[in-house]
Each structure stands twice: as structure tokens, then as C-alpha cells.
Design brief:
single chain, elongated, 30% helix, 3-stranded antiparallel sheet, alpha+beta, 4-stranded antiparallel sheet
Amino acid sequence: MLYGMYISAAGAMANSYRQDVVANNLANVDTVAFKKDLALFKARPTEAAADGSARMTSALLENTGGGTFALPTYTDFSQGSLETSSSDYDVALVDDGFFQVQKDDQVMYTRDGRFMIGTDGTSLVTAAGQLPVLSADGNPISLLQGISPVIDNNGYISQDGQAIAQIGTVKFSDNTQLKKVGNNLYEGQPQSATPASVQMRQNYVETSGVNSMEEITSMIKTQRLFQNNVTMLQIQDQTLGAAIAKLGSII
């Protein structure tokens, strides 16, 4: 009986975790260039199966399994669709890769290409957080005041026919090395980032990678699974309580 409660509790906890992941995805359905997270799970073997002594226990019990456990969250970096923008400072990546920005003394990575002019009147910064955008040389980008930029598909910026800088972009051989740190930023090992001329488009932004209907459907399914596990916990608790009460009356 306690074994069944353990499995139901593990299922309830796993689906509670999945609800949190799906809720975060839904909260970012309109966030530019947001990449959705996937809650992954694995079936835990029984303790006897794990240590090789399954033959010594009940076959029926072993077939029940050892419950469900959550794995680290996986981020889906699939390309989002492009949406036109009226700002000449907005650019969207149309290839696998990331912009480089400076936060404190650390280089961060993002696919959010909503840029703007900083408070100093010349620095190119991110709209979210006012972080300096780095060039291909790894330096903050400074623009000429009062002149709209022209940004080509390779990220080269020019103003009034004058070449200014190239927006720095990198690619990772394995995007799973990246870790979300909030505000659409990622951190990763600098030695794993390879400078690359990632294709981009001016006057566009990349939309969120979240499909609201898929996430709502997933939320409904997850809530039902969570409730089913909680119901099983309650039934087993009641049955166990009844068994204890009956045993006590016999004694």
C-alpha cells in the first residue's frame, strides 16, 4: 500500500513540475524570440531492479515500476517566425545563432534583436535591460547621432554611407550548453561559442516559439494527470486508514 502511495506521490510531483514549465511558456507567448521549455521525465526502476536483485522480489511488484521522475528542462531552440517592425534598430536572426551583449563583466547571449539607442545618445543597447550590444570584435557598438542605421543581412551597420561596425553573433555546437538566466538572456562557456556571420533581417523581430493552443492543451492534460495521482493518493490513504482501524478493533 505504501509503495502505491509513493508512486502516486512521485507522479503528482512530476506533473506539478510540468505545470510550472507550461505556465512559464504561456506567460511568454508574446515575448520576442522566447524559446519554450519542455518538461522531460523518465521512469525510475524499482530498487531491486536497480541493484540487480529483482528476481528475489514479486514479479507483479516489479512490473509496477519505481515511479516517474523529472529530468532537467530541455529548451527548444527552433526558429520562430518573423514579424515586421517599424524600428530601423530591430533585427531578427534567421539562422541558428545568438547576439552577444555585455552584462556587467560577462558576455551574455540572446536572440532578442530589439535594439535601441542608449541614454548616452550613441550606444546600441538592448531594449530589454539596456545592455550594450557587442560587435564582431567584442566591443560595444557606438552609432552616429540622429542618423538611421542600415543593417545588411550579415549584420554590417552603416550610417549615411559610412561603415560603422558589424553586429557580433556566435554559434554553439551544442545549444544545450546554454542556460537561461532571465530577460531572454543565456549564459554559456565562451570557449564553446564560435564567432559566425549569422544571417539577419532589419525591420523584423523573431516571434515567440510558444504555440498557445499546444501549451493550453498540454496544461489541461497535465492538470488531469496531477489530479488523478492526487485522487489515487487519497484512495490509498483512506484504504490504509480503514485497514489500520479494522486491525485495531480485532486486536
